[in-house]
Amino acid sequence: TYTGFVDNALGTTGYYKRIGRTCHVYMVDPVNGTSNATTFTVSLPVTAGAQDQYVSVAQARNNSAFTANASGKITASGTTLTLNLNGSSTGWTNSGNKSAFLNFSYETST
To answer: Angle 47-51-57 (CA atoms, 0-180°, nearest 5)?
Structure first.
């Protein structure tokens, strides 16, 4: 699931695969929708490992403008990926369109 949107985000077709303690997540379509918050989070399919982990975001859109300044953070033992814009978890505009292309791997707890 996704937070930070007026309605459920669109383009949410994705897959994940676990290999040992690594989870690979691939979103076929970008997470995309109308923003209603300065935050942007994505639920993880498997609980993360015991250390904070960071994810690069290939391309993101904030208030309909493309940006290369997006990244993600998974807190230790967390179940959520928090997307950051310009290094801030509350850097997103709370109106207009926002989206992100997500393709990442992270260490799991088990």
So the answer is: 75
* pTM to 2 decimal places: 0.92
Q: How is residue 95 annotated by DSSP?
A: S
- How far is the C-alpha of 19 from the C-alpha of 7, rounded, in Å? 33
* 68-75 contacts, C-beta under 8 A, 24 or more apart: 70/100, 72/42, 72/102, 72/104, 74/44, 74/48, 74/106, 75/48
Residues 89-103 have pLDDT tens digits of 999 999 999 999 889
19 forms beta bridges with 22
* Contact (Cβ atoms closer than 8 angstroms) between residue 71 and residue 56: yes
